[in-house]
Amino acid sequence: MLRSLLAPCLLSLVLTAAAHAQGALVSADQCAQQRLERCQLAEGLEYHRIESSDPAERVVHVLVADMSHPGLSVGLTEPDPSAGLQYRAMRLSTFLERTGALAAINASYFLPFAGGSDGGDDYIPQEFAAAEVSGAVYVDGETVSPVDWETDRRVEAIICFEPGHAVLVAGQICPDGFASGLSSGPHLIENGEAKTPRQRPGQPEADPAVPGPGGPRTAIGLADNGTRLIMVVADGRQPGYSQGMNHAALIELFQAYGAHDAMSLDGGGSSTMGVRGETGPVIMNRPIHTRVPGRERPLGNHIAIFAVSE
């Protein structure tokens, strides 16, 4: 079982935390180059790398952010309708360069989309081309993308942010008082309980009960009454390195981190995690766009951690 496999890894991360007092920061460059198991990237922000080989080879990357820390804030990609849709598609490294964010992951499902040929440049969207996302997105009180239950039926839940706190609830409407939010899915954990799988014809991987290694995955969850944000990217489709995760494995990982709510985000070739480095963005995982390991895909939008003091 994944839980029995992950437990020693997570226990090791907890035990080594005492050796890294606040202020003992590790650069993203060093963390990635040395494949360190645990790095404190900023006060209140940690990166974890989890590797396993049973039941399948798997490399998982986790960012844990203390949203109650006064030096951190969470932000979503600002809309850019200048090309005719809600956003301009942007690689995660470009997003980090332009915004100065400490860290970010990919977020919503998006259109138009074509995966492209192996190693080719015939994918859609190209960087900075027009893109729109599936499901509701709100940024600083503005509705960027409306409620939409038909375009992508994996969209089941929404994560909503206010300073120092977040909630993750079913549906696509944020509770009163939350100005920013992003919907996605499937909904993995609700109020501490794993969600019952829904059968979706033609979308077997949306079913958490599906066996097998799964694929590249991005997901997000909350712990500690919504003050601790857990962002997960699992590498996949790369035999000899990492096959990926299915949703059942994601659920067990979030439960091991103490998450009471969690949902999937866009995955596959979109799955990307990046951190601000000393000289530029550092991609912490190994994306698999157009079947090329390490190649980034232009994304519809992103979820990011920012330093408040900057």
UniProtKB/TrEMBL annotation:
PANTHER family attached to this UniProt entry: N-ACETYLGLUCOSAMINE-1-PHOSPHODIESTER ALPHA-N-ACETYLGLUCOSAMINIDASE (PTHR40446)
Phosphodiester glycosidase domain segment(s): 100-306
Signal sequence region: 1-21
Location of region: Disordered: 185-217
Entry keyword Flavoprotein: no
Keywords (A to Z) from UniProt: Signal
Record-given protein name: Phosphodiester glycosidase domain-containing protein
Lineage: Bacteria, Pseudomonadati, Pseudomonadota, Alphaproteobacteria, Maricaulales
Translocase listed as a keyword: no
The organism of origin for this protein: Glycocaulis alkaliphilus
Alphabetized InterPro entries for the sequence: NAGPA
